[in-house]
Design goal:
By secondary structure, the chain is mainly alpha-helical. Among the domains are: 7-383, Na+/H+ antiporter like fold (Up-down Bundle), CATH 1.20.1530.20; 405-443, no CATH class. It is built from 26 helices and 2 strands. It has helices at residues 7-24, 34-51, 55-60, 62-90, 100-111, 115-125, 129-141, 143-156, 164-195, 206-223, 228-246, 249-280, 287-312, 322-330, 336-343, 353-382, 394-414, 419-438, 441-445, 448-467, 479-485, 500-514, 535-559, 569-578, 625-630, 656-666, and strands at 613-614, 633-634. A two-stranded antiparallel ribbon has the order 1-2. Helix 2 packs antiparallel against helix 12 (249-280). The longest helix has 32 residues, at 164-195. The radius of gyration is 43 Å and the shape is globular. The N and C termini lie far apart (112 Å). It is a multi-pass membrane protein. Residues 650-660 have a biased composition (Polar residues). Belongs to the monovalent cation:proton antiporter 1 (CPA1) transporter (TC 2.A.36) family.
Length: 685
Amino acid sequence: VSNVVPESCLLIVVGLLVGGLIKGVGEKPPILRSEIFFLFLLPPIILDAGYFLPLRQFTENLGTILIFAVVGTLWNAFFLGGLMYAVCQIGGSGLNHIGLLANLLFGSIISAVDPVAVLAVFEEIHINELLHILVFGESLLNDAVTVVLYHLFEEFANFEQVTIIDIILGFLSFFVVSLGGVFVGVIYGLIAAFTSRFTSHIRVIEPLFVFLYSYMAYLSAELFHLSGIMAIIASGVVMRPYVEANISHKSHTTIKYFLKMWSSVSETLIFIFLGVSTVAGQHYWNWTFVISTLLFCLIARVLGVLVLTWFINKFRMVKLTPKDQFIIAYGGLRGAIAFSLCYLLDYQHFDMRDMFLTAIITVIFFTVFVQGMTIRPLVDLLAVKKKTETKRSINEEIHTQFLDHLLTGIEDICGHYGHHHWKDKLNRFNENYVRKCLIVEERSKEPQLIAFYHKMEMKQAIEMVESGGLGKIPSAVSTVSIQNINPTTSSERIIPALSKDKEEEIRKILRNNLQKTRQRLRSYNRHTLVADPYEEAWNQMLLRRQKARQMKREVKNYLTVPDHKLDSPTMSRARIGSDPLAYEPKPDSENLPIITIDPASPQSPESVDLANEVPKGCSGLPPSPEEDEEGLVMRAKEPSSPGTDDVFTPGTSDSPSSQRMLRCLSDPGPRPEPEEGEPFIPKGQ
């Protein structure tokens, strides 16, 4: 049956049967009193959730969770309260006396998602981590909003007139209640971590400190009307890393299984008592009020999720799909917190308490039975991604830490202070200061891997000595060495079987020790870099070089003959075919070297040596008639001797007359530039 019906539904049915049986024999069934619920049944469930909270997913989605928990709960409370007030004004004589404040109080009670119901249902359908942490985180953090609104409207109901100052103070009380609860939890978490430093000689009572300080945090917060749920979550999250580093492995196992058992017992009692209280309590059924409450709860939840998700998706890298939105809206279950808060109302000021209780029980039964039973088939029908049961390898976990470090560096270089940057700052502060104060010195300094190896080796040695097999061998020799020295003592190698807890501890130690980011340089950011004293000189030098290159380029553009545009081989063949005389050598230039042009590969202009081109009239001698007929003479460059350097050995072109000749050659005068179709070498006369 539990494969189809959630366990919470079965427990409520058991409670209904037990309550009916007690009432049938003439006895008065017990009712779930609010003091018992809030002081004894609720804290174990919240402590179990907070102590084993998946911190990485929670912090990465904290913004989305806070928007759903704060804005979503406020929207549900005021939307539901306003509409129910309108229904009461229209609904007839039985509802006219219920005022606006009473309806707003009812809306604040029924609007909050219940963590007990969410845990009971979502643990069974194995939804993926993102959706689970969004709905469950919302149910945990909306407690502050519920507590503030509940006490606020309860106080306002006693006032004759509510002023603007009262409303402003009520708004500020939200921050006091939420942040005050977190502060109380952090203080008790640090005290618990500090206490666990000195429990090495009394391992038996180590788990007791975890339960004691967490419960004291809850009671201290409730004493001052702060958020007890926020306090117990904060204490569990803060104390866990330091306490687990100090306590023994047996104490860790005790804490884990005792918390699971304690929360399971509380959850069972809560749902059974809900069923019993339904039979035993006084009810006032009003069809209009109950049906309107149920309908408006669903409408407010759907509208709130759609609007908030549209806004949240503008800032999220991983968008929430329509399927995710449906599961979030459908997973807003109500539970025993709403019932207990309503049960706390005073009859003198709220004479309609029985009608409120009846409507709340109806909403709880609808969400737990209808939504809780249908959410699993809907998840399968929509093919929503489920939680992967396989454990991540150490390789994946190390690379995840490496990518976190890489993204922190990228954020630092860009000057963008994202959550990676602040997480890295918090980790550095924790490593440098907090861990040294809260963790035993031997454990904080000695490498965990070596300490764990020594512990396991000692344990194996003790077991082997107790078995009497190898009593004469010195204890300093490891078990592997023992098997290598004396292999004939046993027919097969002894491979110790590791329990799941031991294997998990090995994985944790390997994960923490294999990924150690090497810090070659001290920490810096772009605002604290030391200025280079030679930076200005280098900049000036670079600017001078750039100006010199720019001037050289401009002079070259103005004083040189424009280079002939290289053509493709096809165009070169076409040009030679159309005007072959332009490329033929002159008949009276036998003594000149002939430049052969291959049409398939045009002559590159870099291979022409301009220094050896001697034009007429620029050599300092009067032009001869032969030169006048020849025009431009191109002389072959003499090959350099093997021992000379072309760059540093002065040649004939380095003389002042050669420099003047080059300037004369580079000045074309007022001639117009050649057109596109003209040949580069002018046609002979």
